[in-house]
Amino acid sequence: MADQAFVTLATNESYARGAMVLGKSLRNHNTTKKLVALVGPHVSEPCQSVLKRIFDEVRVVDVLDSGDTAHLAMMKRPDLGVTFTKLHCWTLTHYSKCVFMDADTLVLSNIDELLEREELSAAPDPGWPDCFNSGVFVFSPSNETYAKLLQHCTEHGSFDGGDQGVLNSFFNTWATADISKHLPFIYNLSSIAIYTYLPAFKQYGGNAKVVHFLGKTKPWSYTFDPKAKQISGSVHEATAHPTFLLDWWTLYSSAVVPLLQEQYGDQPFHSGCVEVKKHNHPKSSFKHITSTALLQFTTLVTTRAEASWLFSSKVMNGTRWFSFLFL
Prior knowledge:
- Its cofactor is Mn(2+).
- It comes from Labrus bergylta (ballan wrasse).
- It holds the Pfam family Glyco_transf_8.
- The strands form three sheets. Strands 3-2-1-4-7-6 form a six-stranded mixed sheet, with helices on both faces.
- Strand 12 (296-301) and strand 13 form a beta hairpin.
- The protein contains nine helices and 14 strands.
- Helix 1 packs across helix 8.
- It has two domains: 4-185, Spore Coat Polysaccharide Biosynthesis Protein SpsA, Chain A (Alpha-Beta Complex), CATH 3.90.550; 221-326, no CATH class.
- The protein is α/β, with parallel strands linked by helices and 327 residues long.
- The longest helix is centred in the C-terminal third of the chain and has 23 residues, at 242-264.
């Protein structure tokens, strides 16, 4: 239906690139729904131009310059700035029903069936399953609901400092009222929850339809060598499943970076795609060298697509550096 849409939010350049990958993943899996991106005023013109190539509608949302009740609410609760921006999705009243998806999600198969669900449908949060995770949820745009949410924010704030706390306290019967509004975990598979119950991931992970890169470390926090299929990073720990990271970076490097290059032209920009320094060694020598040098490799195998990779890790200046080399 033309009056249904997938909606995301990008408040800065990094999340804008996440939104681009999300939009491309929805397109690649043949969604028939409209795609909408809400963007903050600090997202650059080149990034907005790329978003307009991918999404049907790109709307700039500036709460501080909105001149409406959101502005007044923002003055009372400046700590909830991003939350107020996200709540703008309820003002998209030219759509009858939408699915909101955080920009750090990636679609792995067609999910148009989510729009058969009712407001507010969402998957349990892995940290507290009686709360829903607000990274993916079904909602019905309504100016009345929007006004009530703003009032709720002003009066009660957020128990977690973000939109998830606001939405769970507003839609406070989600846990017990209607099981049909509980989305299966495969529609919002938390990348950091995989390792807390690995047998379940091995059993059901192949059915995942949406992966959510929860946590401080996002896909764009890493660098990627498209030729070597190598992901590297200088973060304290690797919190995402390597094959999902590879999915994200492969789509980003092949379908998004060329669009960014078109828009930036001669202007320099950091794509995150780098070429790892090559060594003239066969694979067997490579394994030997790294095992006797600073890196220590372990071969891992995942049931998902039976992919295999090498994982390397070393500590330098108090920071753990690592890389995944996909075979």
